[in-house]
């Protein structure tokens, strides 16, 4: 093999033992899970908001941001359930660029995956401890999920991973909501096939074990837009897109039909300031169609303390070093306005 084996990484239980969850935190996480489950099964009509930085780049700013979310959550708790994005792995289209805290716990230093594994565990535990939020992360590397599994209440499978068999099989073994994004090319049949695989039981090899998953009834769709044949961003959050997804679900044998609409990425063309407008349009569609209202369980928003983004070697506190994000003042205003409409 054309690679150097630098060092053996610690098993997931070793890293978990470094930053364990207390009984109180376990109970809080279970309560968060139960509330989300009720939303995705239709027992609750609260609205999910998966929101936070494009990538978690430094613990102090991420915790600061989520502590601000805590205050807003308490004001809208009768309408909205916030699930903070703490995305510690960053997919790169070409493989170049900042790959997230897992790879570089300090964006200004060289990659160190051992420190990264410990840092992402510590971050998720610290957020749960300080804010009571159990968060969302992207399952970019399925084998790594076990390092964070007891901390997470939501998992996303990205547009580049949704057709991958290992992602689908591992998703089928989780007990929390797993959102399957439409692929970058926009073919919704790929996304629907992934949801189907996620909801069914499977036997497969995972972490050196033969395992049997039970199927995940909370696997669901995420619409994030796509690139057309000319490479231009094309949205799929409009009324007609949501109605078409309703029809796809009706033709399927899937349980708990659900979609989270991603307000950034190709839906906004990465024009971060468009996210509140897109959110409002989705709510408008929900008011005009009962089937859409039942299908749409929430939104995904990229948001941080400061508007926009900076280069990975930048020093602006609370500003994204990957995709541009909505700043805090606009974020708070958007959440409160959404709650008024629900």
State the name of the first-level CATH class. Answer: Alpha Beta
Largest sheet: number of strands, sense, barrel closure: 8 strands, parallel
Shape descriptor reads globular
Distance between the termini: 55 Å
The tally of strands reads: 12
In terms of DSSP E residues, the strand content is 5-15%
Low-confidence stretches: none
For the record, the count of structural domains works out to 1
What does this structure look like?
It contains ten helices and twelve strands. With 342 residues, the protein is of the alpha/beta class. The chain has a single domain, classed as Aldolase class I (TIM Barrel, Alpha-Beta Barrel), CATH 3.20.20.70. An eight-stranded parallel sheet has the order 2-1-12-11-8-5-4-3, with helices on both faces. Helix 3 (59-76) packs parallel to helix 10. The longest helix has 19 residues, at 113-131. The radius of gyration is 19 Å and the shape is globular.
